[in-house]
Design a protein that fits this description.
The complex is a heterodimer of chains A (116) and B (111). By secondary structure, chain A is mostly beta strands. Helix content of chain A is 0%, strand content 48%. Chain A is built from no helices and 11 strands. Chain A starts with a strand and ends with a strand. With 111 residues, chain B is mainly β. In chain B, the strands form 2 sheets. In chain B, strands 2, 4, 5, 9, 10 and 11 form a 6-stranded mixed β-sheet that branches. Chain B has a 5-stranded antiparallel β-sheet with strand order 1-3-8-7-6, with no helix packed on it. Chain B starts with a strand and ends with a strand. Classes of the chains: A mainly beta (116), B mainly beta (111). At the A-B interface, β5 and β10 of A face β5, β9 and β10 of B.
């Protein structure tokens, strides 16, 4: 399967713990996005990378959230000191040069985070 | 800021035609996208409109009126597998590549 992959698929953690998620985009895609989705809502943008550069960050992204894409390939999203309100599906998407202008992004299956 | 409005639920029968509307407010506008998401699945891209008019892709069509800040997704010959949530999304603000999604329309297709 050459689609976007995310690991882990599910994560249960206790409040106050740190968690890290990984996203592997489609290999030729230089653009990578992180979104968060809660039940009954659309995905909410968190951050965007073009190659290794983090070019956009949502105001939703508090200082407990950090994302990296060190070599312009896979990306990690870390949440420190998790809170119950962080429980959500974390989606990663990627797009190749050009088609990002056409609103087409390729989404991974997501990581479902549950904070107890 | 940006906001999108779409109906929360639509019900239709197999073989019918259904239209899902979306109105948007953005400070800039590049285009309107539509995504489908089955329960437990990832959003998948359906269509994109940057200019006014109708785009057709098989059973699905999408329409855009920039002057009205309005678009719709038209699904024809409905099948049970079309039961899913449908999201409109815009890339609005100048220079930004992030998509802003609506809250989604849950389509239930009945036999």
């Amino acid at each position: 399967d050459t689609g976007v992959s995310q690991n882990p698929r599910h994560k249960i953690t206790k409040r106050g713990q740190n968690v890290t998620f990984r996203c592997d985009p489609i290999s030729e895609h230089n653009r990578l996005y992180w979104y968060r989705q809660t039940l009954g809502q659309g995905p909410e943008f968190l951050t965007y990378f073009q190659n290794e550069a983090q070019l956009e960050k949502s105001r939703l992204l508090s200082d407990r959230f950090s994302a990296e894409r060190p070599k312009g390939s896979f990306s990690t999203l870390e949440i420190q000191r998790t809170e119950q309100g962080d429980s959500a599906m974390y989606l990663c998407a990627s797009s190749p040069p050009g088609t990002g202008d056409f609103g087409e992004q390729f989404f991974g299956p997501g990581t479902r985070l549950t904070v107890l | 800021g940006q906001s999108l409005e779409q109906p929360s639920e639509v019900t239709a029968v197999e073989g019918a035609i259904v239209q899902i509307n979306c109105t948007y407010q953005t400070s800039g506008f590049y285009g309107l996208s539509w995504y489908q998401q089955h329960d437990g699945g990832a959003p998948t891209f359906l269509s994109y409109n940057a200019l006014d008019g109708l785009e057709e892709t098989g059973r699905f069509s999408s329409f855009l009126s920039r002057s009205d800040s309005y678009g719709y997704l038209l699904l024809q010959e409905l099948q049970m597998k079309d039961s899913a949530s449908y999201f409109c999304a815009v890339r609005g603000d100048t220079g930004r590549r992030a998509l802003t999604f609506g809250s989604g329309t849950r389509l239930q297709v009945q036999p």
